[in-house]
Design goal:
The protein is an alpha+beta fold. It contains five helices and seven strands, in the order ββαβαββαααββ.
Length: 155
């Protein structure tokens, strides 16, 4: 059954999540990828994890042109599991990197409006990760893309 998300249980990753990173361009495909990854984590609230990863993938797809790619991968499964969402999108300017997890903060206001975004996605991700006992961080290069990492404590 569901575990209490506030009990800081380590995430335990099964073999399903390890191996090749997933890369594709269709939304339906990502839904399946997220399910596969989330169900390889035990002892955590999978619904919260699915929501966090979905928000990161939606965000990545929003900022990546049709020729680009979004990759979802589980790394260091045995030692310190993390879920990495990487995109080849527009990237985030250095001076904005520290603020992307704030409520209503938008890197690109016009683009966000065009996609109907609320500017809440990443703030929600941060909140969900805290509830899961994980941390979320971002690395980005302008014009090259971004990498968001949901890091769990070592099992």
């Amino acid at each position: 059954g569901m575990q209490n998300p506030h009990k800081k249980n380590p995430a335990v990753v099964g073999p399903a999540a390890t191996g090749k990173p997933y890369t594709s361009r269709t939304k339906a495909y990502y839904a399946l990828v997220i399910l596969t990854i989330v169900y390889s984590f035990n002892f955590i609230d999978r619904q919260l994890l699915a929501q966090a990863v979905s928000n990161l993938v939606d965000n990545a797809l929003k900022h990546t042109n049709s020729g680009g790619s979004v990759t979802v991968e589980v790394v260091n499964a045995a030692t310190s599991p993390a879920i990495v969402v990487r995109d080849t999108g527009s990237g985030i300017p250095d001076e904005m990197l520290g603020r992307v997890f704030e409520r209503f903060y938008r890197v690109d206001r016009d683009r966000s409006r065009e996609h109907g975004g609320t500017g809440l996605g990443l703030a929600i991700v941060k909140h969900l990760c805290q509830a899961l006992g994980a941390t979320v961080s971002v690395k980005s290069e302008l014009g090259r893309g971004s990498e968001f990492r949901v890091q769990f404590p070592a099992p």
